[in-house]
């Protein structure tokens, strides 16, 4: 069995990164998030995502990556915005594109 290297989920975008590269990725991701958020219409702008505070340390003295990743994934999902027609969730910039083609369901 091949063991994957441990990864950490970004609390902003929800992608997985290695334990060494997450510290490089997060500031860049936050900067990109601010740039994209400022381009959105005022009604779709969101407050800045907060890094989850998970301080559970295992018996061996390591951080509990599962708890950290679960909190980061929940934070990333909270960034999604529901469509007011169908209820599906999207990133705000993708919601604008989706709403162009989303039609209300016709009652049969």
TrEMBL record:
It holds the Pfam family zf-C2HC_2. The keyword Zinc-finger applies. It comes from the Eukaryota. InterPro entries: ZC2HC1A/B-like, Znf_C2HC_C3H. GO terms for molecular function: zinc ion binding. This is Zinc finger protein 474. Keywords: Metal-binding, Repeat, Zinc, Zinc-finger. PANTHER family: C2H2 ZINC FINGER CGI-62-RELATED (PTHR13555), ZINC FINGER PROTEIN 474 (PTHR13555:SF66). Residues 6-35, 79-108 form the C2HC/C3H-type domain.
């Amino acid at each position: 069995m091949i063991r994957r290297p441990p990864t950490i989920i970004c609390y902003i975008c929800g992608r997985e990164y290695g334990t060494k590269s997450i510290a490089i990725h997060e500031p860049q991701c936050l900067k990109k998030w601010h740039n994209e958020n400022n381009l959105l219409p005022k009604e779709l702008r969101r407050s800045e995502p907060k890094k989850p505070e998970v301080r559970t340390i295992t018996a061996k003295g390591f951080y509990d990556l599962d708890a950290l990743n679960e909190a980061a994934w929940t934070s990333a999902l909270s960034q999604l915005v529901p469509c007011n027609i169908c209820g599906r969730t999207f990133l705000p910039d993708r919601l604008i594109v989706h709403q162009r083609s989303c039609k209300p369901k016709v009652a049969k």
